[in-house]
Amino acid sequence: MGTEALISLAWTGEISSPIVVSGYVPSRIGDTYMWPKLKISDTTVRRGSWAGIDSGEGGSGEGGSNGDKQQEPGSWFYPGHSSSHCPRPRRWTLASAISDDQITDESLVEFLEELRLHRLRSNERSVSRFLLHDPSSPSDEAPTCRLPGGTDISLQPNNGISDDVSKAWSTARRTLLVCRELIRTERHYLLALNVLAKSETQSPPPPLMLSRLPALIHASTLFLDRMEKNPSVLGVCDAFIQAYEQLEEAFVQWCGVVGGFFTADSPGDPSAVKRSNSAPMGSSPTNRDGPMTLKKRVGSWGRMMHSRRINADGMASTVPRNPKNKSRSRLSVRDLAILPTQRITRYVLLFKDLLIHSPSISIRTTIEDATELSMSLARQADRAQDHASFRMD
């Protein structure tokens, strides 16, 4: 595919260089995904993106065995999918690989590395908006490209990839893994919310909690669906910006009442913290620093949950395989009630990570906007938890 094409794909979800990828869906052997070698066909060229990379079937370079019949862009298929006796197999795309929990980060990186090393013919080594061809370069010299920030590099078709391009790819690959973490943890967080909504906990959630869950689930679903369509940096930032209004309303409403779920007044949760034991778990019963706010109480509980590794990332592993142990392995209401506030913190950390590693490119403004919105969400959540009606005397 070429390094420059993958850099563009990681940042924006689009590839400006014309490419066609021909190959098959990865075969699952046990818990390991294996990819057969992919071939690049340069006889057919199209604009590529997460949902727009053409793929032939047989890798013949002439559109495969389907003749003029075009396959759905952006997809790889199992061998034999053209048989009229077999049902159409599921589609596999780069976008789905990014968010697939069964594909490890290491396997994904290995696949991307192999994919980028398939070089296009030298006259098709056009670069995307991040590597702009310099028309002033003499035709008898190697083409010159400009990296983000104005650095000019020379592209030598047969002399490997320059250090500048390699560094740019290393950064893009890192940010792509951050996007992957954002998508996968959002999915696990959404799973946890649904567990709570279905009352699959040690004790039934209180009615007030159940009334706040639909908004959280709707906002998270909206955000996740948009990220999965374009798991690039631009894609996840745009998804957050577009879903922000719903996320803000749901999180602020939740944080405004979450403190009540950690007191003895929380109906339906016998594990709630008792007023007589107002100090956080593991501390002295005597509170010498004055009244304990529910915000501090929730924060203390959140740190304890983190130390126990009870969070959205671990939700998938909490489902019991033995139905007889289902009731014993269920989480408490408090184990799950803390997740939305932890999720807000993760948004801030991940979007800041994307911003720190983003070069001076056109989409940086979008990354900055998403980062600022995540911090604004955190501030509003803090204010909601600081409400005077949730202070304990």
The proportion of residues forming helix, as a percent range, comes to 40-55%
Structural class comes to mainly alpha
Task: From the 3D structure, determine the CATH topology of the largest domain.
Answer: Dbl Homology Domain, Chain A
Order of helices and strands: HEEEEEEHHEEEHHHHHHHH
Shape: elongated
- The total of helices stands at 11
The CATH superfamily of the largest domain appears as Dbl homology (DH) domain
Number of strands: 9
Name given to the CATH architecture of the largest domain: Up-down Bundle
> Are there runs of 5+ residues with pLDDT below 50, and where?
17-49, 52-91, 119-140, 142-159, 264-295, 297-321, 388-393
Main pleated-sheet profile: 3 strands, antiparallel
Give Rg in angstroms. Answer: 25 Å
Intertermini distance: 64 Å
Beta-strand percentage?
A: 5-15%
Number of domains: 2
Average pLDDT figure: 66
Oligomer: single chain
Spatial arrangement of strands, main beta sheet: 7-8-9
Domain DH: 174-384
GO molecular function: guanyl-nucleotide exchange factor activity
Region (Disordered): 49-84, 131-159, 269-294
Organism: Macrolepiota fuliginosa MF-IS2
Write the layout of secondary structure elements.
Elements: H1 3-12, E1 14-15, E2 21-22, E3 27-29, E4 32-34, E5 39-40, E6 48-49, H2 94-98, H3 105-116, E7 132-133, E8 144-146, E9 152-154, H4 163-197, H5 207-229, H6 233-257, H7 294-307, H8 326-329, H9 333-337, H10 339-356, H11 364-385
Helix pairs in contact: 1-4, 4-5, 4-10, 5-6, 6-10, 6-11, 10-11
